[in-house]
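So, could you explain the following?
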Amino acid sequence: MAVTGTEGLVLLIGRILFGGVIAFTGFNHFLQIEEMTGYAEYKGLPAPKAGVLLSGLLLILGGVGIVLGVLPVPLAALIAGFLVVSALIFHDFWAAPEEDQQTEMTQFLKNIALAGGALVVAAIGPQSWAYSIGLGLF
């Protein structure tokens, strides 16, 4: 089944909004390498700088892939996995000092919600999308 017409246009707008935010987040990893590396180191991540750079690249490629309709299923699944893992590692509000708990919970829930969005993209990824390159594995 193809997603075309009004639904295709709405899907394009959603892809731009969702994928754009994901890609921008990845781009931000490169703009704030030292700050993010310090935070990753503080959280005990092994090879924190490499983690920041690789996750930034994943987010950029995944976000752009969703916008363009290139490999949406595997990229969206990778993004969903990354977001859940990063929520658990970096936004562990249950272990944060009381004054940081609300901020960390908000960031945790944001990651989980975005992971849900990525899974929705993965679920509809095998369909043909209007306004896309249409390169996929499925």
User: Anything to note?
Assistant: The chain has a mean pLDDT of 95. Strands lie at 2-3, 128-129. DSSP finds five helices and two strands in the chain.
